[in-house]
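Thread title: Can someone regenerate the structure for this chain?

I was given the following input by a collaborator and told the matching C-alpha cells would be attached. They weren't. Posting the sequence so someone can regenerate them.
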Amino acid sequence: MIERIIIHRIFPRTSDKQLVIPRTSNKLIRLEQDASDALQMRVTKALGNKSHGIEMSINEVNTGSFFQTAATMLHSDDSGFIALSKDLANGFNKALSGTTAPGGLLAIIAGRVGNDSTPFVATIKAEPQDGFKADEQDDYVGMEYISELLLTDAQRFYKIGLLTEIISNPPDLDGYQAGNYRAFLFDHLMTATETRPAAAYFYSSFLGMDIQKSSKKLTQDFFEYTRTFINTLRVSDEEKLEHHEALRAELRSQEAIISTAEFGKKHFKDEDRKSYDGFMQLKGFPQNAISKDTDYIHAKLKRRRKYLFNNDIWISTPPENVGKFLNIEPTDEQGVTVVKIKGRFQGQQ
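Best answer:
Regenerated them for you:
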C-alpha cells in the first residue's frame, strides 16, 4: 500500500562528465486510485514472491548512508520525508559519477507491505521512453505522441531498492541497526550476463547493499532440493534424466538469478509445478528469486560424460562418481573392450 510519493529528476553527466544538480521536488504527489493501484502492482510484480527481486545484505550503515536516511524516513512527517528524499536524490546523483548510466526520474515511495503491514521506503530509478496514446473520437481514431512514458507494464528499464522495517526500535548512538530491517532489489539487468558490474552503481554505490553472502548456500540448496523433488516424480527414468539435465543447464547458464517459480514454469507440467512449489516452500526455500552462485556445486554441474568407441557406440554417464559404477578395461589385441557397469539393464531409447 503506497502512502507517499515524491519524484526528482536526475540528469546525465555533461559532455565533460561533470555532475548536474538534480531538479528536486518540494511537494508530494497525489495519485488517483487507479494510478496508485497500477504503481503498487508494478512494485509487487518486481519484488513480490515469485518475482526476479532478490533479498540483499545491508553493508553501509554510517551516517548519511541510504540505510540510515531511509530508516529515518519511515517515521518522518511529510516535511521531513521531502527533505530526506532530496538527500537520496543527491546521493544517487553522486553514485552515477564515473558511469555511463543515463539520467532519469527517481521516485521515492513509502507505505506498508505484507500481511503485517510493515512500513517500507523504496526508490525507483526509471528511464523514460516514448510511445503513443490512442485518441478516439466519434468519427475518428488517431494517435497522440507521448515523449516520456514511465513504468509501463512492458517496460523493463527501471531499478527498485526497497527497505522494510521488521522490528521497530529507535536509533541508538550508532543510528538504526541493520538487523531490524530487510532490503530487496529489482534491476532490469538482473537477468543479463553482465548483471553485477552493470547494476553495481545502484545497489552498491547508492543503496550501500550487496548480494546476500548466503547466495552460495542458497544455490546449493536449490540444486539439492530440486534434485530430490525430481527423483520423487512419477515419471519415466528418461524424463527424470531430462529434468536433471535441465537443472544442470539452468545453473550453468549465464542467467544471474534463479527461482523455483521460473524453473517450474519452464520445466514441469502444471500438476508437477504446483507440487514443486509446495515442496520447496516446505523446505523453507525463498519464494523470491536468489542470486546464483555455484561455487559449492561447481563439480556437480559438469555436463554428462560420453565414452566413445570407433564403431559409433557411446556410453553416457552422470558427471560425478563415474568410477563407482563404470569400469572400462583396456582394449585387447582383437580390438575388444570389456565394459562393466554396476547396475541393471532397463531398456533402450
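The chain has three domains: 2-211, 215-298, 304-341.
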